[in-house]
User: Which sequence fits this backbone?
């Protein structure tokens, strides 16, 4: 059986030269290996990323787009065009492309190994093990039975058992797989990871993954020289010896290197190089044994000590692997997939049979074991659908089978289509079957609003008997947000003398992606269940803790891992569960001091800020730093700390909240507060006596009167009456000589509401005006009201929190 790639056999074509002399000397770049492979990589990335963009509304994992993209570039679609095939994917270029693809796969399997924690695997519950066993054995058995419907078995002579056995095992393994990484991505996308359902499915998938790799190693050893039983036996025994040697030697070497990499210091390049060389050598060893190079890399990844050293290596290579090299493996799979080979009633019948048996075996086996473990029927059904997820691991098995000439072109195409179908239906079926409102307690709006807790900084009479502890949730987008936030926290602690009176939660906003590092962070949350506590920390959290040396402030670090479209739910849910009274978000644009202009970090963060303002269970502030808070040359907790704060008070709930926060900052010995009360001619003091008790104007007057009666030493009052927006601009420019301005978001005065909102509605009219007419840092505050809708209680938050 000859393996055809894009319609040609690589063994029969000549190799290409590496580089050309250029088009001006009459040479086409497409006739040389390097320029052609560059063009191929760019084409593959463009096609797969475009498909991922179009499939995003259906919440499909990127692996679906990459598999489909590979098929479209292959002989099933574009590859049928002769000019396209001979120009962009000629047979003589496929050796180079296949080598790069397998190198990317080898490094990716190393990253996958880093995701698997053997200690956590040993702690897997009996329930998860029984579910994994049933979800593996039943589909494996059905795969064995299904294999007899294929010509590789049915048409073989009765004495050709050596050809049948590898095919039967490959079919069993292909139908019993669960894609661990893809499952983690889907669970996190649907916010099921920290539920009981998510924990069980992830634990079962990890057990399934390990058992599937063992079975695949057995299948590969049997698919070698089929004329002698001794060769497969030697391959199998050598593979076992390699694994044992790695278990005895590798952990000690890596632990020795890991101890030399001290916390907070940059990891030396020689250690990273040594680790990667070990991965490549392990791949060479297993390839020499006759298994596959990816097994050696996978074993090294599993045995690699989990922690800062592993995270640093993954961070250095995963972008190149995931972004450039791994998509090449999908296109190589696509070049081997020819859907047109599936023709005739028998062929399409085999495709339907494989899909039905794959889904039936996985779902029925998992559901049966889950029901016996006393899991509810609906949850058991969802668990079965989740365990039916397939992806890259499925393609690896199929490609190895194709390269070993175990699977024919038609069987390979049938199995690839099965993998796409089963992965594609997972998310829609889970969303259809899983009803969180029926399995978890969801807070309705009335009970949510009536719960007694502090939701804002300004005190109400009904809150006097409640705790006076102020809890603040601060969100970070990157390391550059740390300095201004640390200085703001120090000023906000006021004059408190105990840690119990001020508590700060610091949340690093991390986008959920296909990167293994993202999945590893997700696993940390999964291993710790619904409480989200863990000692693992990401780089931003470590940097924050290194910068944060605050007195009498209780600080807890949190990492939220979600798609950016829904990460506001994590912020709101965390603020609610921690009883935070104030959430502080960084502005989505960062100030560049040298150029004196803003740069956009990520435009998606503007949408996050807007959605938090709409759904927050407490007051919210958006911090726009213009350099006044970033320059910290000494420890913020030292006696030299100083901060000048100006509050522009126009009136209304948001302004009262901003002023209340400013008053707390004024309690700090190093802070100086100036309150600028700006009023218009439309409301005179005589008119105030005639308004209702609950009117905003009267509330403002009482609030200001109470502040004046306290007579704070570090507080200065200024009052201004304005008649036009031009006068407002002049007053703002007059009082912008400070470290930070505090203003409210809403406009409850006519002369304020006439101000243009411009490009940043989340900052309100005054915030926009300050941003456009001054260079001072500003904190824009929105006070919590019961009129605000809330998403709290309807989601499960994927977080990793550090004590």
Assistant:
């Amino acid at each position: 059986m000859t393996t055809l790639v894009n319609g040609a056999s690589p063994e029969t074509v000549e190799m290409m030269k590496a580089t050309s002399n250029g088009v001006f000397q009459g040479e086409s770049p497409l006739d040389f290996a390097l320029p052609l492979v560059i063009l191929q990589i760019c084409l593959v990335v463009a096609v797969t990323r475009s498909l991922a963009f179009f499939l995003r509304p259906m919440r499909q994992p990127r692996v679906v787009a990459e598999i489909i993209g590979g098929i479209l570039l292959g002989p099933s679609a574009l590859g049928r065009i002769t000019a396209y095939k001979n120009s962009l994917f000629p047979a003589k270029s496929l050796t180079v492309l296949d080598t790069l693809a397998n190198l990317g796969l080898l490094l990716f399997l190393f990253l996958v190994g880093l995701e698997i924690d053997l200690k956590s695997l040993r702690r897997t519950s009996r329930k998860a093990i029984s579910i994994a066993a049933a979800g593996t054995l039943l589909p494996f058995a059905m795969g064995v039975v299904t294999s007899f419907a294929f010509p590789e078995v049915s048409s073989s002579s009765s004495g050709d058992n050596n050809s049948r056995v590898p095919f039967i095992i490959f079919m069993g393994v292909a139908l019993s797989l669960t894609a661990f990484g893809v499952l983690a991505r889907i669970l996190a996308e649907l916010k099921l990871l920290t539920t009981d359902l998510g924990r069980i499915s992830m634990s079962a998938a990890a057990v399934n993954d390990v058992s599937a790799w063992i079975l695949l190693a057995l299948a590969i050893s049997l698919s070698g020289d089929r004329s002698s039983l001794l060769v497969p036996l030697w391959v199998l025994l050598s593979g076992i010896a390699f694994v044992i040697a790695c278990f005895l030697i590798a952990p000690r070497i890596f632990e020795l290197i890991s101890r030399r990499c001290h916390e907070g210091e940059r990891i030396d390049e020689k250690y990273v190089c040594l680790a990667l060389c070990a991965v490549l050598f392990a791949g060479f060893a297993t390839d020499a044994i006759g298994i596959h190079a990816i097994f050696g890399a996978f074993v090294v990844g599993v045995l690699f000590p989990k922690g800062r050293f592993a995270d640093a290596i993954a961070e250095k290579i995963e972008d190149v692997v995931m972004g450039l090299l791994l998509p090449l493996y999908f296109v190589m799979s696509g070049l081997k997939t020819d859907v047109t080979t599936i023709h005739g009633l028998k062929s399409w019948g085999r495709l339907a049979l494989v899909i039905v048996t794959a889904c039936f075996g996985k779902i029925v086996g998992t559901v049966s074991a889950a029901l016996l473990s006393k899991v509810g029927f609906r949850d058991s059904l969802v668990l079965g659908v989740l365990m039916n997820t397939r992806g890259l691991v499925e393609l690896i098995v199929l490609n190895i089978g194709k390269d070993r000439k175990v699977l024919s072109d038609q069987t390979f195409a049938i199995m690839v289509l099965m993998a796409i179908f089963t992965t594609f239906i997972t998310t829609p079926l889970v969303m259809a079957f899983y009803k969180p409102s029926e399995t978890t307690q969801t807070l309705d709006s009335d009970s949510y609003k009536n719960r007694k807790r502090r939701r804002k900084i300004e005190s109400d009479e009904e809150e006097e008997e409640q705790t006076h502890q102020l809890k603040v949730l601060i969100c970070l987008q990157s390391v550059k947000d740390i300095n201004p936030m640390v200085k703001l926290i120090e000023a906000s602690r006021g004059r408190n003398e105990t840690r119990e009176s001020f508590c700060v939660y610091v949340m690093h906003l991390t986008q959920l992606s296909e990167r293994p590092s993202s999945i590893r962070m997700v696993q940390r949350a999964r291993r710790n269940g619904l409480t989200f506590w863990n000692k693992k920390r990401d780089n931003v959290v470590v940097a924050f803790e290194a910068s944060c040396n605050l007195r009498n402030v209780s600080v807890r670090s949190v990492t939220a891992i979600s798609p950016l479209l829904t990460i506001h739910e994590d912020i709101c849910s965390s603020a609610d569960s921690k009883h935070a009274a104030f959430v502080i978000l960084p502005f989505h644009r960062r100030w560049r001091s040298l150029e004196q202009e803003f740069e956009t970090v990520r435009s998606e963060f503007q949408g996050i800020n807007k959605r938090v303002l709409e759904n927050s269970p407490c007051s919210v502030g958006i911090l726009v730093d213009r350099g006044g808070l970033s320059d910290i040359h000494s420890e913020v907790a030292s006696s030299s700390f100083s901060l000048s704060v100006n509050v522009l008070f126009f009136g209304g709930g948001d302004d009262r909240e901003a002023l209340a926060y400013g008053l707390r900052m004024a309690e700090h010995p190093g802070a100086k507060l100036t309150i600028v009360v700006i009023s218009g001619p439309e409301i005179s003091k005589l008119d105030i006596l005639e308004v209702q008790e609950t009117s905003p104007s009267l509330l403002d007057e009482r609030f200001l009167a109470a502040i004046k009666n306290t007579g704070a030493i570090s507080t200065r009052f200024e009052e201004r009456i304005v008649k036009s927006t031009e006068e407002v601009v002049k007053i703002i420019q007059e009082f912008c000589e400070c470290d930070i301005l505090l203003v409210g978001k809403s406009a409850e005065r006519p002369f304020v509401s006439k101000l243009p909102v411009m490009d940043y509605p989340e900052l309100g009219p005054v915030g926009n005006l300050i941003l456009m007419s001054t260079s001072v840092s500003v904190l824009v505050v929105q006070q919590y009201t019961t009129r605000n809708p809330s998403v709290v209680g309807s989601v499960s938050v994927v977080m990793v929190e550090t004590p």
Summary: The mean pLDDT is 78. Residues 130 and 357 are 21 Å apart (CA to CA).
